[in-house]
Design goal:
2 copies of one chain form a homodimer. Chain A has 238 residues and is an all-alpha fold. The first copy, chain A, contains 9 helices and 2 strands. In chain A, a hairpin with an 8-residue loop joins strand 1 and strand 2. The A-B interface holds A 12-13, 55-56, 59-60, 63, 65, 75-76, 86-87, 90-91, 93-94, 97-98, 100-101, 159-162, 164-165, 169 and B 12-13, 55-56, 59-60, 63, 65, 75-76, 86-87, 90-91, 93-94, 97-98, 100-101, 159-162, 164-165, 168-169. The structure holds a DNA duplex (30 and 30 nucleotides).
Chain lengths: 238, 238
DNA sequence: GTGCACAGAACTGTATACAATTCTCTCGGG
DNA sequence: CCCGAGAGAATTGTATACAGTTCTGTGCAC
């Protein structure tokens, strides 16, 4: 781990994006703990840029919900958003709608593209099933495969606005999912079947069924996650 | 109309919000035409602030989709996002999901709050019906009542995340709705009944029905709007 | 008349200085 | 021992200067 960040790309206008992705990765992976304060000047000096691009990145992160203004303090003081059971429930239900809509669009894809998509989804879910059966579950692999499954149909079927929404919202669910997957890898069997149901619904070109299947998958995930959170407690609340 | 803006509030951190709301209002009401260039220094001088708060406002507007980087030009040059049929369709389907989810939550409201909400919605819809029957339709009133109807259940039933999403997405639909309402005020009769269906579904505490009712309302609105756009053409595309 | 090159203007990206607010820590009084 | 007041530090908000890139218009060659 080197403490000095690498030099920022020289492309015009890339600095805020670099800062954004750096901070988001730290938050999503938990290295910036929920509740942590984020100080503009610290980030700026660590990433070797001025406060201006940092401000841009922070504004975006705040808009997307990764950071919030400290609730206890009065002044605008950005802090990493806490992980709470209630927030997880709401977030998952929103993702359910977004991806459900994408799945609905997927049923309207031209036959060629739809078949290609269905093939990909089937392959991914087969690997997902194998991974879920492993004696020693590989959390990262499981998460990766589940994420890819959902991302695939969103990328292919959703329009630009829906994709943008998905890109903004989904990584926040990742904060919870990483928690979830490492504590509940054993309970993934239903997810395999739920994915299969999604594939069937898209194949039969039934928009309502496809949307429902995706929503069911996420609502069940929300329930399972809720139990885990209830057990292990929330983060960043004190 | 005075050309010099009033002095900005002295509250700390309020300038970007003032700029944001000023620009957003201009865009939503069409006074800043789709395709128009937005120049930081111009806005700054018109609103008597420096470029810094203007940048903040522009970043947020860009993130929410009101302005985009000019497609023809190479450099990052903010322009007012065009109004296209395709975008309207996607936007409305997203709003349908967001408000549909809110309506679903509304069915889970405690009985007291739910009854209060139902009363409000009934009142609003009655006024909406009367307004829609008027010989000379008042476009602004119609829009206002429809907007209030939907906003009410979102405000009461949705969680913070869903509300934030709604606040970010819905005003963009307003750009299209204002166009729609002024060209199609006569076709609002079905909307009255669709609203009534929403009320019935919430009253019967049926989550799926409530969600479906809202989605139907928006999908029909999308179809009606699509026809209008096809007739009058798109804006800001050339 | 058309196309290309070059100079100047226009605009955004970045850095930094300064202002204003508020948090925090210490010290004194009760 | 606890609480409040005040000074200093810390942090964000705003303005502005400067740099770099791209657009635009003019003039020249063909």
């Amino acid at each position: 781990m080197k403490s000095t960040a690498p030099a920022v790309t020289s492309v015009r206008g890339a600095r805020p994006m670099v800062v954004y992705h750096a901070l988001r990765a730290l938050i999503v992976r938990g290295q910036l703990a929920p509740g942590s304060r984020i100080v503009e000047t610290d980030v700026a000096s660590k990433l070797r840029v001025s406060r201006t691009p940092v401000r841009g990145a922070l504004q975006r992160l705040a808009h997307e919900g990764y950071i919030i203004d400290s609730p206890s303090l009065q002044q605008s003081r950005p802090t990493v958003a806490p992980l709470t059971r209630e927030d997880a429930m709401e977030l998952f239900s929103i993702v359910a709608e977004i991806e459900g809509l994408a799945a609905r669009c997927a049923t309207a894809l031209p036959a060629g593209k739809r078949d290609a998509l269905l093939g990909e989804l089937t392959t991914i879910n087969a690997r997902f099933e194998r991974a879920s059966r492993a004696k020693v579950p590989k959390h990262d692999l499981l998460y990766e495969l589940d994420e890819r499954f959902h991302r695939r149909y969103v990328e292919l079927a959703a329009g630009p606005r829906l994709r943008a929404l998905h890109d903004a919202v989904k990584p926040q669910a990742e904060r919870y999912e990483r928690l979830y997957v490492s504590l509940l890898s054993r309970g993934l069997a239903p997810s395999v079947q739920e994915h299969a149901a999604i594939i069937r619904a898209i194949r039969s070109a039934d928009p309502d069924a496809a949307q429902r299947a995706v929503q069911t998958n996420w609502r069940n995930a929300a329930v399972r996650l809720g139990q885990v959170i209830t057990n292990v407690g929330e983060r960043g609340q004190w």
